[in-house]
Amino acid sequence: MLELLELLVRAESPSEEPSAQGRMLGLLSDAFLERGFRPRVIPGKQSGGMLLAMPVSRVRRRPHQLVLGHCDTVWPVGTLQSMPIKIEEGTFWGPGCFDMKAGLVQGLFALDALRATGADTFSVTPVFFINSDEEIGSRDSTSVIKRLARSADRCFVLEPSLGPEGHLKTARKGVGRFTIRVLGKAAHAGLDPGKGASAILELSLVIQKLFALNDAEKGITVNVGTIDGGLSPNVVAPTSQATVDVRVPTSADAERIERMIHALRAETPGTTLEVEGSIGRPPMERTPGNQKLWLLARRGAEDLGIQIDQVTAGGGSDGNTTSQYAPTLDGLGAVGAGAHAANEHLVLERMVERSALLARLLSFPPLAEAGL
């Protein structure tokens, strides 16, 4: 497992550089071939492509279970020079190791475990889908993910677990991105200020309205992350702009907040607003199907003597999408910390038990026959 993990981490694969994905997809294709799976690389229109892999010996018309992962990272090519791979006291450090190349390794070794124990005659066929644009919103791959999830018996997401205990994610907040532009009118700030209409003044009012949408009790966060505007200190600003991040726990909250943001209207005379954006990743909620899958995971963990719990995560993943169509369980990847941070790391010894847990889950019958 360590050898494959090092190989994948050394294949730097930032989302924003599609050409960097070829090596990763090639390494993963080889790994699936070695395990009796037929890999197919699907070219991307904007991304570096995606990988679909299923057993060569799969039985047609048998239900399938979707195992979802991504091979892209937030780290640019060359990061290994400043964040080199290191192993200290059972901890592996390196860019992209925790989020989520270790999860991919665990998925592959779950197949090894099942083959070694003769339990790889699946009653629910595992279908692996690995995209290369998850960190930038899965714009290329979402349509494929939806198609696979619609017909899936269940979905397992190899994203990192949460916390040192390795909790599984049965709920995630929905994530939205909005851009608000204000159009005003330029004028000389000293000679003719009254002939202008300040886009910056209006944006300041809009920002206060946006922050007023925050609701800590409900878990709703609205954050104005960047602002820009104006031409010069001596010019009444004719334009301004803000980008907004929104996190919501339920679909009802998503619809309400999205509607309220698009309903914003300018108050400053002479200015107008343009609002773009939406809740791009819907919330992953604790639906009956998701909870049934969680009970199955708890049963599998008990079989292996593993302690797990279910938690809610503030970030989004492709599990938000699959949850709209099929029972989904997220956070089956590595145990560690530091996703998207310079201290990204994972606990090596936990990779074995996480891989074993996934193997146990893959071996279960269809959810309708699981006796839950």
List the helices and strands and how they pair.
Blueprint: H1 2-10, H2 21-34, E1 37-42, E2 50-55, E3 64-70, H3 79-82, E4 86-88, E5 91-93, H4 97-116, E6 125-131, H5 142-150, E7 152-157, E8 168-172, E9 174-183, H6 199-211, E10 221-229, E11 239-248, H7 251-262, E12 272-281, H8 288-304, E13 310-313, H9 319-322, E14 328-329, E15 336-337, E16 345-347, H10 348-362
Parallel strand pairs: 3-6, 3-7, 7-14, 8-13
Antiparallel strand pairs: 1-2, 2-6, 4-5, 5-16, 9-11, 9-12, 10-11, 15-16
What does this structure look like?
The chain is α/β, with parallel strands linked by helices and 372 residues long. The protein has 2 domains: 2-172 and 283-369, 3-Layer(aba) Sandwich (Aminopeptidase); 174-281, Alpha-Beta Plaits, CATH 3.30.70.360. A hairpin with a 7-residue loop joins strand 1 (37-42) and strand 2. The chain has helices spanning 2-10, 21-34, 79-82, 97-116, 142-150, 199-211, 251-262, 288-304, 319-322, 348-362; strands spanning 37-42, 50-55, 64-70, 86-88, 91-93, 125-131, 152-157, 168-172, 174-183, 221-229, 239-248, 272-281, 310-313, 328-329, 336-337, 345-347. The protein is elongated. 46% of the residues are buried. It is built from 10 helices and 16 strands. A 6-stranded mixed β-sheet has the order 1-2-6-3-7-14, with helices on both faces. It starts with a helix and ends in a 10-residue tail after the last helix.
* SS class: alpha/beta
User: Helix and strand succession?
Assistant: HHEEEHEEHEHEEEHEEHEHEHEEEH
Let me know the average pLDDT: 96
The share of residues in helices is 25-40%
CATH superfamily of the largest domain: Zn peptidases
